[in-house]
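SEVERITY: medium
COMPONENT: batch folding queue
REPORTER: lab tech (J.R.)

DESCRIPTION
The queue accepted two submissions in a row. Attaching both inputs and their returned structure tokens so the on-call engineer can compare them side by side.

ATTACHMENT 1
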Amino acid sequence: FRKKPNVKLISLIAPLILLIFSLTLADAQVNPDLKFFEDKVVNVVVSTKAGGGYDAYGRMLARYLRKYLPKSVVIVRNVPGAGHIIGANEVYLSKPNGLTIGMGNYKGLIFTQIAGLPGIKFDLAKFSWLANVSSEPQILIMGKHTPFKSIKDLKDSSVPVKMGMSGVGSSAYNYTLMVGNALGINFKTIPGLSGSEADMAMLRGEIDGQIGSLDNLRPMVESEGSKVLLVISRRKASLAPEAPMISSFVTPKTKGIIDLMVASAELGRPIPAPPNLPPGRLKVLRDAMEKTFKDPELLAYSEKVKLPISFTSGEDTQKLFVGALNQSPEIVRLVKELTQPEK
């Protein structure tokens, strides 16, 4: 006689067989573009020295991105110089294989590209934009040792107001020249202060102030007594709600340049990859960026260390850059006049 089937044993084994089958099937169906990143090194090229906001965002990205590019290694490489141009060039000219991505002041490079400054080997409209992860105000601050307590004080100054920034062509350099032009302030630019060097120069009294992103300059306001005199954004800065918005200084003559500054401020922390990424690999990276910057652990960490996150998709970031670069001949001429290095 045949033995009766062991129903109890079958009921125990069947789910295991189904699980093994489903895992095998899933492995067979793994996205080949995602699988490409296994055992590969992904380089996050930060276009500043170690320290400062861009470096902090780059290292936060590297820490959590590997979770969504399984079995990959994500490292940060600091490539500073020329107001972020050197790092941007490196990303743009890298192989379009998805293994090089950027973090830096790409919004400042909008002005640099419009002006056609030397050394540029990139076209911001042609980068493969993966995301923008922060849109926050740019602020103008003055050191507590200075006599400048308002925009009127700056305009009435009998001596040039010394402003620090990383380099010619950097966002701070361009904003400083444009704010000076639009508001009628005699700023003296002092480039060559990368990372936290401008903060230290302010504390030593070597410069009067600087323009930068709110999160970068927050410690100078909260801990060192610097005063926020101006906000460049569409929104008030919670750090200094009483500070005037640059839009309050718009005139028919200044509207175009102020609108461009405000639009560029929306692109706080954009993340590019080289042009011409294979479509499948571009989608994998964009999906990974969205998952990374919506990850609860990253969001908790970012709140703890005061690195605010506001996510914009790669597709929308691409549109923002194309729109910002599409300026009238009058604005192009003005940007060129303002941002040409002094001879």
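ATTACHMENT 2
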Amino acid sequence: MGNSIIRIIPYREELAVYFKDFNITWLQKYFVVEPIDTLMLNDPKSYFLDKGGFIYFATLNNEITGTFAL
């Protein structure tokens, strides 16, 4: 990896598309995307953050490479 820099950063509205895209890709590969998944991923603020949850992103050299929610 050399001089690669990995960071964990908190949710920002402009990153919502990554949260949705990464999760849809994962669901399509391992499960099925259900209607509730689409609703939740289209509105992470209401379904996760406003209910006390957290969303984070992993970056590698300032490129978004992953995401997770708690």
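NOTES FROM REPORTER
The first helix runs from residue 16 to 30.
No errors were logged for either attachment.
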